[in-house]
Amino acid sequence: MPADIVGSAMKANVSHVTMTGDRRLFGTDGIRGKANSDPMTAGMALRLGQAAGLWFTRDNHGRRAVIGKDTRLSGYMIEPALTAGLIGAGMNVTLLGPIPTPAVAMLTRSLRADLGVMISASHNPYEDNGIKLFGPDGAKLSDETELEIERLMDSRFADRLAASEALGRAARLNDAAGRYIEAAKTSFPRGRRLDGLKIVIDCAHGAAYRVAPTVLWELGANVIPLGVAPDGFNINKGCGSTAPEYFCASVVEHGADFGIALDGDADRVLIADEAGRLIDGDQMLALIASSWAAAGRLSGNGVVATVMSNLGLERYLAGAGLALHRTKVGDRYVAERMREIGLNVGGEQSGHIILSDFATTGDGLIAALQVLAVIVERGRPPSEVCRLFTPVPQLLRSIRFQGPSPLHSARTKTAVAEAEAAMNGSGRLLLRESGTEPVIRLMAEAEDEALLVSVVDALCQTITDIVQSA
């Protein structure tokens, strides 16, 4: 998991990823990989279902799991394998069909299930898939619990599986989407409507392709839906929050007042103002936190964000008398910290926004609705409402690799030392491995933009050279 290293506001610092214990399968957001290749195979899904089912039925407690999925072709392979494993462990399974990740978390709690499962690789292309697990409280599992399940998968447990007469059953919940639609609508302030607003909503051909446009329409908006024709192959392809230029251009093309882009499983969101200008998760956190604080709704007088969030957010919150608590990258780490210190707003710059008054995990649609609520209340365009601070110049880069991580190379360590020396305490540097794919993530901030570009270019070139020579 990513190391939790944060220096002073303008001191260069480096974070590296380490993995605890002997974790092989679970990353920062469940298990993920190329579908029908190790580890994302039907065999692994079967064994995971058996092990997770046994873990959540220990001491003869627990009898129900819920399973949702996004729109990837490989969901048809992974869903029945997981179902078989859970049934073999003695669990009854409720199948939710294509539905957002936050809906799975919500229904795990509302149906009093002992385990929630979402089959999705989030923002990744269709070739990949993943499995996320939720406990009975609707929260993602801790590192420790995932490690215990992984150890159980590696053990011999055949004699612990259910007897023939104790096997579980599977049934489909036909109104799963309707339940989530109503829950999302109730998150919007009572008495307010979206009447008169034209809204572009890009669902990335993913899990929210039906529910998100419906919620907006039922709240009164004139809806321009994009990315709502999934075919198993087009999820996140040139659309959604990973391709924001598409929905931003569509806002301008349609003369819309507001734009929303979700990712494949709808736990992440980006928004755009009426001019098609992108507004990231940091600005959303600032707006929601300040508006909730003014209304007396912000718990703990602060916000949780990750080491990736811009220094401008930290300065803005401090100026408003609010604290910023940073954690390592990953929305579940944000959620864990929120629970630890009693806060109800947290998230990531990438658009994972967690509002614990309404959800236990990131919910892109509910986050967008909270922004829209402020816009409706103030009666001003998004361009005037949603930009509360000027970000410190920041560069984000990703470098894909195969084989050993280049972070462990002596050349990388030397290049990092040179970058730190060049910044001379005037910026922030974060270097880490992705927890979901073989990618090095680099983030750097500095007031001197020319220095920032120079430092990042040099460091990226060194890492690229290492990758190409491996």
Q: Give the % helix.
A: 25-40%
CATH superfamily caption of the largest domain: Alpha-D-Glucose-1,6-Bisphosphate, subunit A, domain 3
Sheet-strand content, in percent, reads 15-25%
Q: Quick check: average pLDDT?
A: 92
Largest sheet: 7 strands, mixed
Rg, Å, rounded: 22 Å
Shape designation: globular
Structure description:
By secondary structure, this protein is of the alpha/beta class. It folds into three domains: 35-174, 3-Layer(aba) Sandwich (Alpha-D-Glucose-1,6-Bisphosphate, Chain A, domain 3); 179-385, Alpha-D-Glucose-1,6-Bisphosphate, subunit A, domain 3 (Alpha-D-Glucose-1,6-Bisphosphate, Chain A, domain 3, 3-Layer(aba) Sandwich); 394-469, Alpha-D-phosphohexomutase, C-terminal domain (TATA-Binding Protein, 2-Layer Sandwich). The chain has helices at 42-56, 75-88, 101-110, 143-153, 176-186, 211-218, 244-253, 281-294, 311-319, 331-341, 364-378, 382-385, 410-423, 449-469; strands spanning 26-27, 30-34, 64-69, 92-98, 115-119, 128-134, 170-172, 198-202, 222-226, 258-262, 269-272, 278-279, 302-306, 323-327, 345-347, 353-355, 394-400, 427-433, 439-446. The strands form five sheets. Strands 1-2-6-5-3-4-7 form a seven-stranded mixed beta sheet, with helices on both faces. A five-stranded mixed beta sheet has the order 9-8-10-11-12, sandwiched between helices. A three-stranded antiparallel beta sheet has the order 17-19-18, covered by helices on one side. Helix 1 runs parallel beside helix 2 (75-88) and helix 8 packs across helix 11 (364-378).
